[in-house]
Amino acid sequence: MKALQRVLALRVPSAFRYLLASYLLFSCLLLCAAGLQASGQAAPALPDVVKPPASINLGSTSFYDGFGRTRPGVTVLQYFRWSHNTEISAADGTEVPAFVDPRIEAFPALTQVIVATRWHPAGGVAGFSVLLPVVGLESSFAPHSPKTLPSTGFGIGDVAAGATFQSLSILRRVSSGSNSAQAAGKPPSDRPVFAFRTQILVQIPTGKLDPSKSINPGCGYWAVIPYVAATWLPLARLEASTRLHYQYNLPTSRISNPPPIPHLTYRNGQAGPLTYGNFTTSWRFTKRLYLGQNSYGVYQLSPDKTNGTNVPKARQTQLYTGPGGGYDFSRSDTLNVNVYLKLEAHNTASGPSLQLLYIHRF
Fold it and tell me: What is the pairing mode between strands 274-284 and 238-249?
């Protein structure tokens, strides 16, 4: 600044003085910008230490999902899943070379209890549900792998609970069909064509979380998960269902196995909000058997945060599809089977999975 004042005090033409002063000021600004850029480049990037939970509903519910219990009572759903993850992808979808020959096996078993009450607001049925997960985890890597992800083994996952609203089925009047039935005076009947359900789940961080392990049954933070599920029956035997979720994850100070960085203290982390959905179509071949296609997709709306700062490229996306079907043993018991094969995955472990869902209605 003193140099700039001296230039302005020189006994030279005023135009020359101001030109020289402008040159000195512009040079100072360039030097300051270069210094800021150099200091920014020297600062290490924050690691991604709190990620979206692996226990979210990715294809766990599928066929006829929009239909639910409308009479007072209890329905129990038992989920079993096996996921065989053999790849860990980067933000661009390519495999991370630092993980050599990864094998991450996940065996979640989840019990869901849904209670339908006698309260009928807005022409539907109010209720609530509780989800109780138990998870088995195994991970292994090649002996010469530069990086590994140790797992905790077996443990309790995070409990989720919330209120539900189940719509009544929308019916369509259909004719009795044959001329003989019409001649006999058989009245037309109604068949369901559409139903939906909404719920707001709260994920409670009750699951096992070992701070020395990278892969845990619990995620260590609270989350709010509203969703809507719907089923449409355009034909009596043709079904199309979807369940669309939004998940907001709260910040947490419970961080598992963060990488040590000199002079960096991990205060908190926050997984970015997610939107994800399940999609199915099926054809009912018999009164009890239906077969079709199932898929799910995940998109992370904003990156994860460490110490309140966005971690660059820390967004997760997934897209899976595969065959599936179900069998109605009776009006009270149903079994759904789903196979999921990877189409796309970014910033996550990936591999095929097998899903079983057994439903019993009391």
Answer: antiparallel
